[in-house]
Design goal:
4 helices; binds heme C; Flavocytochrome C3, Chain A, domain 2
């Protein structure tokens, strides 16, 4: 008898707990009930998860096919953003150590004759500190041994101007990409706040501007 009542109490408690849990799982208000979040609205794909139709893939990327010299430049996304490549790059990519056609037209020595924008002075400035490994195995930056190359921040930056393109800028397509004009997965509401009057069409990052806020003389 004693055992029976223990079981009964146990069952009643379990039932109460079950009801309790169920209750807490029910939303306090009915807000949102009846509103359905569809699979189609969850991600960038606009079809349900079982479809692989043309719509699933969205707008096809259509890069400009106008040859270099006949294309229309694209407005910069923000002040000193790397400009998008407005012309066809067919046959120019990938850029390799032996074949960089971009330089053939964008080198400041020839750009004006080619009607192309010359690459700016920032591309002829080496920001990398001279790095070496000392005999004790420590890394040295600009001749100063350092244990943590990330922590020393600007001490590791160096600004060395040169008359030719620096190696770090050789792979143009790392930063300058072609733009597919009409393929928009989501609407872009970003509005640039240009700090130069001609910020939408030209780089301002040269001369003294290049050095602004950079605390290094090396
Ligand atoms: C045959 C010459 C030529 C070659 C090669 C070339 N370009 Fe161009 N590029 C131009 C010209 C000319 C323009 C200006 C727009 C026009 O007239 O089509 C231009 C415009 C640009 C712009 C936009 C500049 C701005 O002020 O908005 C970028 C970025 C660019 N090119 C990058 C590249 C990259 C990267 C490569 C290599 C993959 C390359 N170009 C190869 C001639 C060339
Ligand atoms: C590491 C990223 C990076 C690489 C690599 C790079 N660029 Fe740029 N480029 C930029 C940025 C950022 C700007 C805008 C700010 C500035 O002027 O530095 C720019 C600006 C430009 C401009 C516009 C200049 C102006 O006066 O408005 C041209 C043209 C250009 N780059 C061409 C090239 C070419 C050609 C190459 C390859 C030889 C190249 N870039 C490699 C980041 C890059």
């Amino acid at each position: 008898m004693k055992t029976m009542s223990k079981i009964t109490i146990g069952l009643v408690t379990a039932a109460l707990l079950f009801v309790g849990c169920n209750e807490s799982a029910t939303p306090a208000t009915n807000d949102g009930v009846g509103k359905t979040v569809t699979e189609e609205s969850l991600g960038l794909r606009k079809t349900d998860l079982y479809s692989e139709t043309t719509e699933t893939f969205g707008d096809k990327a259509r890069y400009n096919t106008a040859a270099a010299g006949t294309s229309k430049k694209i407005k910069r996304a923000f002040q000193d953003a790397p400009p998008m490549v407005p012309h066809d790059v067919e046959g120019m990519l990938p850029i390799t150590i032996k074949d960089n056609q971009c330089i053939a037209c964008h080198d400041p020595m020839v750009a004006a004759d080619m009607g192309a924008t010359p690459y700016p002075s920032s591309h002829m400035t080496n920001f990398r500190a001279a790095t070496a490994i000392a005999s004790d195995g420590r890394i040295s930056k600009n001749g100063v041994a350092t244990d943590n190359t990330s922590a020393d921040g600007l001490k590791n930056v160096s600004i060395k101007k040169q008359s030719t393109l620096v190696g770090a800028r050789f792979n143009c397509s790392q930063c300058h990409a072609p733009q597919s004009g009409d393929a928009l997965l989501v609407e872009n509401n970003f509005e640039a706040d240009f700090t130069s009057a001609d910020g939408a069409t030209a780089s301002s990052w040269n001369g003294t501007k290049l050095m602004e806020g950079i605390d290094t003389t090396k």
